[in-house]
Amino acid sequence: MFLKKNSILLAPLAGITDPVYRRICRRLGADAVVTEMVSADGLHYKSENTAKLMVFDESERPIGVQFFGSDPERLANAARFAHERVNPDFIDLNAGCPVAKVVRNNSGSALLKDAALFGKIVKAMSQAVPVPVTVKIRSGWNTHDWVDIKFAQIAEENGAAAVTLHPRSQTMMFTGRSFWERIAAVKQAVSIPVIGNGDINNAADAMKMFAETNCDAVMIGRGTLGNPWVFAEIKSALNGEPFTPPSLQERKTLIIDHIRAFRELHGEQRACGEMKKCVAWYLKGLPNASATRAEIFTSSSSVSIEEIICRFFGF
Ligand SMILES: Cc1cc2nc3c(=O)[nH]c(=O)nc-3n(C[C@H](O)[C@H](O)[C@H](O)COP(=O)(O)O)c2cc1C
Q: Cα(168) to centroid of ligand 1, in Å?
């Protein structure tokens, strides 16, 4: 497998897993990361803002660039373009996104409605580049009307190097629980590696997913927010070693580093807007944090967010 057995991957999260966050997660133990989804149509129309989403730092490797779209030729061209321009370690096809503006264009999880088109896309992308092409799917469009086995098999037949399964339906969006037994079923049905995804929040969850599904790797999204140390926690569990949670000093240092690196990469306007929710995630669950979180949301600059953080930690 192009990823080590029992790898722990950071999931693509649009608007969140930017280069700064991916670097943090790699440093804290993520074995691989994926860019947020990049529009193949956007690249076709030469959008520089779209192309920017593919950019990463060498320290983020191994990294995959993820594309969404519905046209086999555009997706193959996007894969080729990414290979030539940024040379990622793998390329991922998004066949799982449930949001309206994506499925409206027959992309994301809408691909799960058209097996022939899905096969054509995977084949075109796999043949376009010398690096592995992976696919990320949901279990189906309607709950219990599962097509995950069929689509994982089609992906394998058409050259995919691995399949990530988020076992929810499109109609569930992000509600309810993911059906981990679907990951076990897909693992039994294909020979390519299966990456299990959905509702992992800590090491116990990850170990449970490995044990219950026999998946080759796990991918974590929301469970990393405010807690990128979850990767180190899972690594320790896999190695049978005790895990020491981050000290307040480590937590504070990471928050400040995150804000500064984000500001340097994206500028003050975005830093002030986007760091508020991000810092609030880091403070979640800490004693007496709610007033501080409220104060952060009224900040008018990222520097004032830093000041509030320093005051909160008191050192
Ligand atoms: C805010 C947000 C943005 C997301 N963006 C993407 C994306 O760009 N590409 C993708 O394949 N999945 C995306 N997802 C889905 C996640 O990658 C993941 O499959 C899902 O959140 C389930 O995993 P989790 O329970 O570990 O979060 C997104 C999810 C959220 C909540």
A: 11
